Amino acid sequence: MATLQERLDEAEAAFHDLLIGKAVAEVRDANGETIRYTQTNRAALSAYIADLKRQLGTTSVSGPLRPFFT
Questions:
Q1: Distance (Å, rounded) from C-alpha 54 to C-alpha 9?
Q2: What is the pLDDT along the chain (70 residues), one digit of tens a residue?
Q3: Which one, 13, 30, 37, 39, has the greatest CB density within 10 A?
Q4: Quick one: DSSP state of residue 21?
Q5: How far apart are CA 39 and CA 12, in angstroms?
Q6: How many CA atoms, within 13 angstroms, populate the side-chain half-sphere of residue 68?
Q7: Using an 8 Å Cβ cutoff, are 34 and 28 in contact?
Q8: Residues linked to residue 27 through DSSP beta bridges, in sequence order
Q9: Which pLDDT belongs to residue 31?
């Protein structure tokens, strides 16, 4: 069974493939099922990547940073 990091690496590679014009990218999920992503459901792949990052605790700050003055 793939680790979270391995699944994230695979998902990010698939997302890259879609961005550079490949019509279809496939990713194996936690259940071992293969999911096929296309340009039309690229947002779902992006959400999957965000979820994996959240599970790994590697999410980035969303939104602009605001200065804090004391």
A1: 14
A2: 578 899 999 889 888 888 887 777 888 887 888 888 877 788 888 999 999 999 998 765 556 666 767 6
A3: 37
A4: T
A5: 14
A6: 1
A7: yes
A8: 35
A9: 83
Instruction: Spell out the residues 6+ positions from residue 2 whose beta carbon is closer than 8 angstroms to its own.
Output: 10, 28
Could you give the 3-state DSSP secondary structure of residue 25? strand
Query: Is the full-model pTM beyond 0.70?
Result: no
Question: Cβ distance 16 to 27 under 8 Å?
Answer: no
Between CA 61 and CA 28 the distance in angstroms is 27
Which amino acid does the sequence have at 69?
Answer: F
Q: Is 37 in contact with 25 (CB distance < 8 Å)?
A: yes
